[in-house]
């Protein structure tokens, strides 16, 4: 729950005449900036994270029952209805899920679900900017929940109703909000919902400390902490930050720092969105260190908060924190550094156009303080005139008005404008009486004392100094009385807690002894039983393992036999296929002896070469170590040997060079490759060269992208200029095209300095085996003439 409604609840007030900052000054500045940030940090919790939303969206789609689906939809509707600054799309999502929840509940109406939907719709109206409709629906729902005696939902409803009064910090508004929170507490106390109860007490403590009722605030904060601990709830960073502020108001700055640092540690380690709270905590730590006189540390923490505000693109907060840092520089008597720093801020960040709740002009106030410290009164006058102009605004926040008056009084006192200073002293006194803060009245008396001293009206000056001291003593006595009262309460509480703790420890000790005796007996019996069970299980497991091993061994032997038989069968098949192909070649050879037609004879010989290419492949398969893969270097070498012998390449002065990567391929790839090589090499031998001969190069390798490349090139005369590969319709060319498609490859022919035929085709891992030593095989076949 975002119980801390403020980004920063305290501001540093710098007065040139007083070296120390007063508590009332901080309180006044606290109340001055509260409205500026209420719209940013709400007391409502966002218990559902973005990751949880994604999970709920998935659950909604796969929910097995209507109840599960309805639960997911309700949580999604609640999430989108309670977003801090929802955009139109998020509001549409909220409306969609609310309507879907109503439809799902309509099938089997449940009164409690109807109440929950009404609470969510009320929050939706508030987020949508329709608070009147939301509050009316909520008040009607509260009456219905009362009649149903549903204390959990009644507590949540009252808590939600209190949120409608979180937009300003007027006394009556805060009283109304406290009343609704007390009603929520009364409802939650009748349930076991400790976390919700703790949140109510935490918010009550925050409101009471803003109303200066620190005793009650301390009591409520400690109750909240107790309930959180009882519920084992760990997201307590906001409560520890609140306790730090409370100890700050009591002047116990070291304890305040301890609580703030604890809050910072929890917030940083949490997975929740604590960015703004971390910013607030750093700001509070800055004030703590100011009170201890450790100004450099104060600047460090203010600067950390400033960086968060910059990241969040919250310019209003940027200027508030910049003002804090400027005030520290002024306390360190470094006005030039303060001026340079503020100039950087005003150059980089635009000042917010609107002043929420007429909270005041932070820039003009800060520059006026700087130029007063520099004694550059001419420049200071411009900012003083701007503050005077703003005091004519009837809607100006009363605390801002008092702050303006104080700076205007200092300016006129410093520039000898005594009549104007007196005028604003009287105006400020009237304002401070309305505020009802004695410490601020004492500050005004000190300013009056400085004015009278400057005019050498010493009798009046002494009167105002005595008045200031009287107020100071009264405040001191009141503060001490409250501190003593708080100490007495704490002492009594600690005594009772110590007595209760002692009794609890005694009871725990006796129970521990009894439990220990029972545990020893139970452990002994359990250990014996466990050992017996383990022994039996181990014995059974060992028997089972032996049986499994025997089965696995027998199956492995059987599989090895089957694989061996399969290999021999495959080799026998390949052997018979090769023999059959050899018979076909013999028939073709016999037929060629009776042919007189040269064209037919050439066709027969071409067929012989093609059949031989396939026969060689089957020979390699049955003669190799495995019948599944073909060694491509050996296969291609034998194919080239055969073609060389058939065409007598040595006589034709043709040299065939082989550059082959040691690959073994599946027969499905090896057969098309062999036939393509047969056609390409045959064509090159027959048509590429004249009587001077030349060179043919055959290469096969795997590229870096995993594709295989088959290339056949010659240094012959090349193709005719008008040759069109796409239109070529010879048998050999058509075969190569078809075989290239069978390989799923890309077919290309280059006609430069001879002919280069290249096919790029993919190969799968189960079709490929690369030898361990991947050295390219390069052989030449050449017969000199």
From TrEMBL:
The chain crosses the membrane at residues 523-539. It catalyses: ATP + protein L-histidine = ADP + protein N-phospho-L-histidine. One of its GO terms (molecular function) is ATP binding. The keyword Transcription regulation does not apply. It comes from the Bacteria. Residues 668-765 form the Histidine kinase/HSP90-like ATPase domain. This is histidine kinase.
């Amino acid at each position: 729950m975002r119980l801390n409604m403020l980004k920063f609840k305290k501001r540093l007030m710098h007065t040139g005449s007083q070296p120390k900052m007063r508590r009332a000054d901080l309180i006044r500045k606290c109340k001055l900036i509260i409205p500026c940030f209420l719209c940013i940090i709400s007391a409502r919790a966002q218990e559902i994270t973005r990751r949880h939303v994604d999970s709920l969206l998935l659950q909604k789609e796969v929910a097995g029952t209507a109840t599960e689906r309805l639960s997911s939809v309700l949580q999604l509707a609640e999430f989108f209805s309670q977003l801090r600054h929802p955009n139109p799309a998020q509001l549409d999502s909220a409306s969609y899920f609310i309507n879907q929840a109503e439809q799902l509940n309509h099938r089997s109406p449940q009164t409690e679900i109807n109440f929950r939907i009404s609470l969510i719709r009320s929050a939706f109206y508030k987020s949508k900017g329709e608070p009147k409709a939301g509050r009316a629906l909520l008040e009607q729902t509260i009456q219905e929940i009362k009649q149903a005696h549903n204390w959990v939902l009644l507590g949540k409803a009252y808590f939600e109703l209190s949120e409608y009064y979180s937009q300003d910090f007027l006394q009556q508004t805060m009283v109304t909000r406290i009343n609704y929170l007390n009603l929520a507490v009364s409802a939650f106390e009748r349930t076991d919902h400790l976390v919700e109860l703790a949140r109510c007490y935490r918010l009550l403590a925050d409101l009471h400390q803003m109303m200066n009722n620190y005793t009650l605030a301390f009591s409520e904060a400690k109750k909240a902490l107790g309930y959180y601990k009882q519920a084992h709830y760990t997201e307590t960073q906001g409560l520890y930050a609140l306790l730090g502020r409370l100890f700050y108001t009591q002047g116990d700055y070291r304890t305040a720092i301890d609580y703030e640092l604890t809050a910072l540690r929890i917030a940083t380690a949490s997975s929740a969105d604590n960015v703004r709270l971390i910013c607030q905590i750093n700001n509070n730590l800055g004030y703590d260190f100011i009170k201890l006189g450790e100004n450099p540390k104060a600047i460090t923490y203010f600067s950390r908060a400033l960086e968060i505000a910059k990241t969040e693109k919250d310019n209003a907060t940027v200027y508030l924190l910049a003002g804090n840092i400027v005030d520290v520089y002024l306390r360190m008597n470094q006005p030039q550094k303060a001026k340079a720093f503020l100039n950087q801020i005003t150059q980089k960040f635009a000042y917010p156009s609107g002043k929420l709740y007429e909270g005041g002009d932070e820039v003009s106030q800060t520059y006026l303080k700087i130029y007063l410290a520099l004694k550059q009164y001419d420049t200071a006058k411009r900012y003083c005139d701007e503050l005077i102009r703003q005091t004519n605004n009837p809607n100006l926040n009363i605390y801002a008005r008092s702050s303006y008056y104080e700076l205007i009084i200092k300016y006129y006192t410093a520039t000898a404008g005594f009549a104007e200073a007196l005028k604003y002293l009287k105006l400020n006194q009237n304002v401070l009486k309305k505020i009802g803060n004695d410490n601020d009245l004492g500050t005004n008396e000190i300013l009056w004392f400085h004015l009278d001293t400057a005019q050498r009206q010493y009798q009046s000056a002494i009167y105002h100094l005595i008045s200031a001291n009287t107020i100071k003593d009264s405040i001191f006595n009141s503060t001490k009385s409250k501190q003593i009262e708080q100490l007495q309460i704490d002492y009594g509480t600690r005594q009772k807690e110590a007595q209760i703790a002692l009794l609890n420890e005694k009871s725990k000790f006796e129970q521990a002894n009894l439990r220990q005796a029972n545990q020893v007996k139970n452990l002994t019996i359990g250990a014996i039983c466990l050992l017996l069970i383990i022994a039996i299980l181990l014995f059974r497991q060992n028997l089972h393992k032996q049986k499994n091993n025997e089965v696995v061994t027998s199956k492995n032997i059987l599989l090895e036999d089957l694989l061996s038989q399969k290999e021999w069968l495959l080799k026998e098949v390949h052997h018979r296929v090769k023999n059959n192909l050899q018979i076909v070649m013999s028939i073709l050879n016999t037929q060629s002896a009776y042919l007189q037609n040269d064209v037919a004879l050439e066709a027969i010989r071409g067929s012989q070469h093609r059949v031989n290419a396939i026969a060689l492949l089957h020979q390699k398969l049955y003669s190799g170590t495995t019948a599944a893969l073909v060694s491509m270097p050996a296969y291609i070498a034998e194919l080239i040997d055969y073609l060389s012998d058939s065409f007598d390449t040595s006589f034709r002065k043709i040299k065939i060079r082989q550059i082959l990567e040691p690959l073994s391929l599946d027969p499905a790839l090896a057969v098309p490759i062999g036939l393509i090589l047969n056609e390409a090499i045959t064509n090159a031998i027959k048509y590429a060269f004249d009587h001077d001969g030349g060179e043919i190069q055959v290469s096969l390798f795997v590229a870096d992208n995993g594709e295989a490349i088959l290339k056949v090139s010659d240094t012959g005369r090349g193709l005719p200029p008008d040759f069109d590969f796409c239109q070529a319709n010879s048998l050999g060319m058509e075969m190569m095209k078809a075989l290239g498609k069978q390989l799923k490859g890309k077919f290309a022919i280059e006609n430069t300095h001879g002919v280069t035929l290249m096919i790029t085709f993919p190969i799968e891992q189960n079709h490929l085996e690369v030898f361990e030593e991947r050295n390219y095989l390069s052989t030449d076949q050449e017969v000199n003439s």
